[in-house]
Amino acid sequence: MRTNVMRRPFAALGLAVLVGTGAAQAAQCGNTSAGFEAWKREFAEEARGRASAASLAALANTSYSTATISADRGQRSFKLSLDQFMAKRGAPAIVSRGRALKRSNAALFDAIERRYGVPAGPLLAIWGMETGFGAVRGNVNTLSAVATLAYDCRRSAFFTDQLYAALTLVDRGVLTGNTRGAAHGEVGHTQFLPKSILNYGTGGSLDDSTNALNATANFLKAHGWRAGAGYQPGEPNFVAIQGWNAASVYQRAIAIIGQRIDGE
């Protein structure tokens, strides 16, 4: 993951300024809660004309999410060995439940595979890994989470894009100021960030499992999934799984769990 540098050279001013060209400078990122309210005002000024007044009003009501920052700084499980990671995530239980869901929802998974070329196994592996098949979708305010990470200097550019996407989704009624999800702003059964909802959502709320599974298959297809090809490391479709999560241990876990579900 990228680490962002300061986004403007005039940090000491603490407000949006104009340089000789007349261009407004970017809102100042920060590493503590102290500058968050000022950053929101600066960001809102920059966003006028690109985001609606209603969505910016929703942004104004966000708060600095300490839960988000704590989660962002504490992703230690991605440093585990593959066996340790699989055990921590409960791989055997995911495989068992995944096989049962594949059988009980055979028509759904057959339809998804016909449309996107993605079999049930990797979809169920992602669903199980992300939210325990919808059981744990998070309870952090989504707009506050995304705004906090857009303000935070570590990955400001990446999450600024996510924030603009979230504001668009507010205008479309997909998100509201009360939407809650995971600590980094992911929502739904398979935990889509706002920009992924815009790019790969197939209609309807991702809090509906059918919508979420279709969107996930659409994501994988857009990232190079080829119908009928393998998806283990070194096989053609593993690149699509790599697009889902940057952590190699997570990628390999999805591939292994998916294969165990598909190979029952």
Order of helices and strands: HHHHHHHEHHEHHHH
The biggest sheet, with number of strands, parallel, antiparallel or mixed sense and barrel status, is: 2 strands, antiparallel
What is the SS-derived class? mainly alpha
Instruction: Provide the CATH architecture of the domain at 73-138 and 190-262.
Output: Orthogonal Bundle
Top CATH class of the domain at 73-138 and 190-262: Mainly Alpha
Mean pLDDT across all residues, rounded?
90
Q: State the strand order across the main sheet.
A: 1-2
* End-to-end C-alpha gap: 35 Å
Net shape:
globular
Give the number of helices. 13
Number of strands: 2
The low-confidence parts are: 1-24
- Tell me the helix content: 40-55%
Alpha-carbon Rg, integer: 20 Å
The fraction of residues in strands falls at under 5%
- CATH fold field value of the domain at 73-138 and 190-262: Lysozyme
Pfam families: SLT_2
Keywords: Signal
GO molecular function, one term: peptidoglycan lytic transglycosylase activity
Signal peptide: 1-26
